[in-house]
Structures are given as C-alpha cells and as structure tokens.
Amino acid sequence: MSILSKKSLLKTAIVMLLLICVSSASFAFEKGASNSENEHKNEKKQQCYVGLTVGQKFHPLHDLVNKLLSASAGCKLEDFSIEIENMAPTSVDEGIPNLVLMTNGYYHFNNSSLFTPYIGFGVGLGQLSRFINSDTKDDFIKAYQGKFGLSYRSTSSTEISFGYKFLGLLKNTPKVKQRQDYDRYHSHSHIVEIGF
Prior knowledge:
With 196 residues, the chain is mainly β. It has helices at residues 3-24, 174-177, and strands at residues 29-33, 44-59, 67-77, 80-89, 99-108, 115-132, 135-155, 158-170, 188-195. A hairpin with a 2-residue loop joins strand 3 and strand 4 (80-89). The radius of gyration is 19 Å and the shape is elongated. The protein starts with a helix and ends with a strand.
C-alpha cells in the first residue's frame, strides 16, 4: 500500500470517527418555520443529520470480501433530503475506486408508522488508483448511484436504515479506458447496506 493510499485511508478514518462522536451527541435538531395563518398545520420541519453506513457488495462475485464504508451529512425538509456522502472500501485493489464523493437527493414516503420507505439518486466523482512501478497514479472518474430502502425511527433523533444501492462508474476518461484491468465488473456494484 502506497503512502498516498495510507493518507487517504487515515483521513477517511478520522472523518468517520468525528462523525460517530457528533452523531452520538445527538446532532440532529429541528427548526420550525410557521405560517402566520395556520401555525400548527403548516409547520415545516428541517432536520440536519449525519450518518454512517456499512455496505456489503454482492456483485461482482469476486469482490464479496470487500465492504464499503460511508459517512454522510445532510439536511431533510419534509419529504425531501439532500446529502454529501463519502464512500471508501475496506480494501484497496487496483481497478476498484478507493474513494467516492457523492451528492445524493432522496424522497421519503412519509406515513404514520415508524417505518419510512425512501428512494434516492446521486452523482459524484470516484478516485481510481493505478500502481505503476511502485508508484501510485490516480484517475478521477464520474460516478452515479441509485438507492432505495426502508428506515426505522428508533428514537426522536435516531433512524436505522436498510437498503440497496447500485453504484456505477462512467469510464469515459481516456486513461481509464486503456487499462486492461478496468472491465465491466469494476464499472458497477450492487450493494446491500445498513446505516444510522
């Protein structure tokens, strides 16, 4: 593992530890914006949140050992939310992105129960590392993802989510296209995830 990979993994670990501390201190808060005509009926709630997710890839099959860790921060207004998400795999292999930064949007199908289905889509950039003569070269490629799942509100400030994620990488960079090891198995992943 090169020094650059160690530094990026260290930065990701520090960010995740920081997010765990912030979320355990109940970072979520609510702001109410009321309408003067009907204050109680038209009250809008805005929640800011942080989240941690652990994902298990189940396709491609040769990558079942590799887990995907992600940390996110965002805001939710009524049924919609937007967030920034940073993803990193637990092991770094050539041809697999070692860091992905996404901007995601979600729609939450709110109902009167504690279980809320959601659907989302995101776009961003992935960092793909190549090892050439014990030196690391990084390529940045466009990434996209689609997500759906179910979240369970365990307390007033904590939600646990279970979901599916399709993560795709657009291999339109000339350097990436020429690589022998970057094939259709590395261009997309199917991931089952759990988070809070």
